[in-house]
Amino acid sequence: MTRLGAILDAVHRSEKQLVVYRSGGETDLEAQFASHRVDVVHRDLPPGGPEPFLIVSEGGKFAGALPLEDLIGLLEPPVVRPGAREDVSDGYRVLFEVLDETVFTTMERRALLTVSREIEERAFRVGCGTLHASFQQLSVFEPQVETYRRLADASELDIHVYGTDDWTPPAIDGVTYHSDAAEIDQFWTLTFDGCGDDTQACALLAREQAEGYEGCWTNDPETVRQIQAALVERNL
User: Fold this and answer.
1) What b-and-e string marks burial along 196-228, b requiring 16 or more CB atoms within 10 Å of the CB?
2) What is the pLDDT of residues 62-93, one digit of tens each?
């Protein structure tokens, strides 16, 4: 299995579950977590019982419990992640991991372009750091040349573009091309390292299938670093 494939499969195998204990019927958490591949289960609380709460499990093992009110507060924008994750309990750690990853099993190219634009816009707003983008074939990058030219001209970003060698892109200051990456044509990736700020790190990783793409986009800095390392080391 390729390295990028292993990262993607690890995200898809995530075995996280949220068990909501409350009275008064189901909540809308299933819809909110549908794109995160998280199993949400409801349990009724008896009259006079405790305040509604949430049990978080990972891999079938208990990770923690927290008040349902805390979860609802976390889901209200703007969503704020803790700066030092070692300072939070396992339950909150798993919950933040859930919120940091959006998994998709079928997505069209147009939708992925929208996600890519969001990542590129974040990199532009930060204005520094490293942006890695793979376009499967370099010829696919051709319609994006002017976009990346403006991105490079208006920022201090270090931009790296990857793709199989089927077209010669124009030289752009601040943009480095890589056409020596084996099996890059299987994946569509875009990563931004946040310029030293983990709260700004983000990535898209997609694998082409017969009917569109499967993959994820993530704000988890460790997953972002793993994808970047695979590209930089050409160990895909």
Assistant:
1) eebebbbbbbbbeeeeebbbbbbbbbebbebbb
2) 888 888 887 777 666 555 555 444 555 667 77
